[in-house]
Amino acid sequence: MTDIILHHYDLSPFSEKIRLALGHKGLAWRSVKVEAVPPRPLLDALTGGYRRVPVLQIGADVYCDTEVIFRALERLQPEPTLYPTGEGLSKALSLWWDRATWKPAIGVLVAHIGEHLPEAFLKDRKEHYLGYDISKAGMAPMLPVYVQQMAAFAEWLDSMLGRTGAYLTGDALGAADLTCYHSLWLLRANAGADTIDAQLGLSPAVTAWMDRVAAVGHGTLSEMTPEEAVAAAHAATPDSTFAADADPSGLKLGTQVTVTPDDNARVPVSGTLVSADKQEVVVAVERPETGRIHVHFPRAGFETLPASSAAQSAA
Known about the structure:
Low-confidence stretches: none
Helix content: 40-55%
Radius of gyration: 19 Å
Distance between the termini: 45 Å
Largest sheet: 10 strands, mixed
Number of strands: 10
Number of helices: 12
CATH topology of the largest domain: Glutaredoxin
Structural class: alpha/beta
Mean pLDDT: 96
């Protein structure tokens, strides 16, 4: 089987979500460590410029955003599934959690460790990623609100677990658990579990659930260099496992398009539309370093537009 390659860095909570998904499925994978702050020229060559992490690579197919990475892993190895009660509930819960908790989680985090964050990291996140100041001083005025929000959300998790059992959508672990775990993991891993549990009032049910999620581990990994990953893409041919001509807005295959996140890090990826349905869009990108690659994105949370329309909008 072609190597499963994850481009990530250790303290990325979204990367932790995917590392756990790989563990849940018992997969062996190659680990390519990237810098938390760009430039990442070799990763840019693989993604067409998409700047968020993690990125999953399987040969000449590159998957951007955790939702479409989950979908790729489901195609690759259906069992154990990431969607034990179906996709809808897990995806809706995951999208809400990612967007609702991101800023308050960062606010709580920097209150504890903000003085240790490099200036280059803070500058990048303000100017190129989030659009606001995540320094300790910059986030401090709203810290009480961030604590209030995270405590409220954590209590919702407690309520869900009280009705569903061991996991958020039922008796089996799924994508919703991996998603709702990751921002609390970020806080506990960096500020200390006892500190965060007390500050947010995490219930015994929530902390026991986190222990169960963590227990799935990260699967079996081996290190790989960025250069080796690029070479693997160049030597491969894009897979045809996902092939669809069903764009809900009527975009035709062969159209030059841009795909852009609709929330932050709004760097468009330009390419030729080669596959699309209601949940996933794929564009072909060609670079000297990689040859022809297919870059996959989810539909929810991303804007796919004809290149001419996107240029007019930017102007």
